[in-house]
Amino acid sequence: MMFSHEIMQRFNFSLTYKQVKAFSPLLCSSFHLSAIYSQSRNYRRPGSSPERLPFWKYTNFSLKNTTETLKKNVNLVFKEIQDHLRGPGGKPLLENLLEQTTVMWEFRSPEDLQKWTVSSDMEIGGKSQAFLKLGTNNQTALFYGVLNSEAPRDGETTSSGYCTLRSKPPKGAFGRKLNYDWSNFNTLHLRIRGDGRPWMVNIQSETYFTLQWDDLYHYFLYTRGGPYWQDIKIPLSKFFMSSRGRVQDGQYALWPDKITTIGFTIADRADGPFQLEIDFIGLCNDKAHTEEFAYELYKNIPL
Amino acid sequence: MRTLRWLVSAQNLCASARWLSWAEPCKSHKPLVSLARMAHTSSTPAPPKDSNTPKAVTPFEEHFSTQQKDKASFVQVLDLFCGRDVRRRGHVEMIEAALKWMPEFGVEKDLEVYNKILDVFPKEVFVPKNFIQSMFNHYPRQQECAVKVLDQMESYGVCPDVNTCFLITQTFGKLSHPMKKYRRIMYWFPRFKYTNPYLIPAGIEADPVSLSKYCLERIADDRDARITVYQLPSTEQCDDGTIKEHTHLVGIQSQDQIALLEEHDRNYPVLVEGPFNLWLKKTCVNYYILRAEPSAKKKEKILDPERSLYYPIYLDLDLERDLGEDHTFDVDEVDEGPVYAMCMAGDEKLLAKWIQGLQETNPILGEVPVLFRLTSGPQELSLSVKQTDSSPQDSDEETTQGERLRMER
């Protein structure tokens, strides 16, 4: 089962790592701070392997940069130790046990925008454009652009037209992989303002096997449009699994204890401008929601 | 089985030919061919006669390049193909060409046409007859083609029906890839059929007034909001013979918004902003809003606690609330001005008329200045294109025009 190839996100870890730019903070100029745009990832022909540069090719080894990076990472180490002493997840134990809501991402400063990556079909040769910047009164994130579903003329790609906003995977000191633990909560809570277009929420969780690297969990996000904010609650049990853009026959519930990224994709084939304003992305514990997984968990798939 | 037999005979033929060539290596090419010909049991085919029935292989794209592009002509092409040959030779190429031409004929969302396409496959030929055939990919090219048809149905959101199932069973049998695909679609499609809370009535795009009513009700999200149609679309014959067209003007305002506007500080102007986009599937409509800038000082509403001694207006109880009972989010409110009214108009010039109409229910609009802050095209986009002008991407979609500010009164 397929939605479309557009929503297929290429999770390539070497590239993601390149995006994080953990060792090259100087590359982020002030322009990047004001608006993140989708040309950050280069065009790659379908079927061609991603360029695997060794890290010394794209790292700035100047003295200033090295000292800055070292300072940042050592500070991070100290912060991690402090967080560890305070309690699980950097919160006091009581708070960790009792809290019913939490705000995962909010957009109040340009630094908050740096936690996100924008990509569009430009990397497969399409013509969509997407940008991310701070919205009204610098208190929200505005993800906007133009969707263009004209397929690139490379003789292979048959469809195009997607734009994606995706959070960067959390990193610890010296580039260690971290992940979020959402096991206290069962519902995703978003305060957004869209323009009537349907979106897709993608959640990626930490996996072990190579086979699962492309696994993503999706659900739909329908926006009302108009000048008012919209509170949307999506239970985590509703998310269904797909791999490389194809919904899988064998479904498994999302394990909320090792979440790496969340993303928003638009690919509704309606050419034209789009925009999505996000106030915050949070999690809550909906006591009334007891469903564990919304889809059948067949032992033997009757197909 | 038939294919296998052909394969064996072809192999025998090749083997005999090679043996011949080994035996007489110095002979030229021509006698070899004639010898190979002799191995054939049937006589050599005669050159095609000029008759009315076209025997030459014509590319199927030509069939679809008719002048009239509608459902009837599309079905006619398929019928022509089916009636030409019992064996339906070249049906895979035909179906692939048909799939490509569907959007151009406007039948890409028509289930009947998809069933018609699946009907092109010859029946009962591709059904596996024993377990070995069903274990391996039996007639893979044909199965792939049928999966392609189902894939296109899926991507256009066409849910297959019983006829589709019947056709697939008849063509490929129950244990085949198209059947698997069909079952997958039938599992997932009904599951997400009613997930969208904002269903758009079919055919609403035709009437601008009902479209505006639907859109305004949707974005206002308030059952108490009242819709006013200020102007209906009409045409007027002027004295000098020119025809003047009037477009629609529909507004919405709720009682809460009227009360909010009444409290507006008269020293500050109210703003008419727009046009903003609202998407209904693939159509984009514009709306305008009447709002105010967020005021620095927020008026605290002082309620008279002695208005009713028995039922106090507000209770200030200090309930000991645990963290486990706190279901609110710890975020700052976004500072935004209040929205007083919304409207949809066919023409920007009608906005002044809208404000005039609003004055009947909101007399305050006669006292405060109204500032029109209208932009052509999406506001955010025009800014972004300026920034990325240096980039090699061509940005010819939007032409930017400066903000037009106009003071009324």
Molecular structure report:
The complex is a heterodimer of chains A (303) and B (409). With 303 residues, chain A is of the alpha+beta class. Chain A has one domain (5-284): Jelly Rolls. In chain A, 16% of the residues lie in helices and 29% in strands. In chain A, the strands form two sheets. In chain A, strands 1, 2, 4, 5, 7, 10 and 14 form a seven-stranded antiparallel beta sheet that branches. In chain A, strands 3-6-13-8-9-11-12 form a seven-stranded antiparallel beta sheet, with no helix packed on it. In chain A, a hairpin with a 6-residue loop joins β4 and β5. The longest helix of chain A has 24 residues, at 63-86. With 409 residues, chain B is of the alpha+beta class. Chain B has two domains: 57-192; 204-294 and 335-408, no CATH class. Chain B has helices at 2-23, 29-39, 61-64, 71-84, 91-105, 111-118, 131-135, 140-155, 162-172, 177-188, 208-220, 255-262, 351-359, 379-387; strands spanning 226-231, 234-237, 243-246, 249-253, 270-280, 283-292, 339-345, 370-374, 404-408. In chain B, the strands form two sheets. Chain B has a seven-stranded mixed beta sheet. In chain B, strands 2-3 form a two-stranded antiparallel ribbon. The longest helix of chain B has 22 residues, at 2-23. The model of chain B is unreliable at 14-33, 36-43 and 377-409 (pLDDT under 50). Chains A and B meet through α4, β2, β4, β5 and β14 of A and α8, α10, α11, β5 and β6 of B. Chain B: InterPro entries: ECIST_C (IPR029342), ECSIT (IPR010418), ECSIT_N (IPR046448), TPR-like_helical_dom_sf (IPR011990). Chain B: Residues 382-393 have a biased composition (Polar residues). Chain B: One of its GO terms (biological process) is innate immune response.
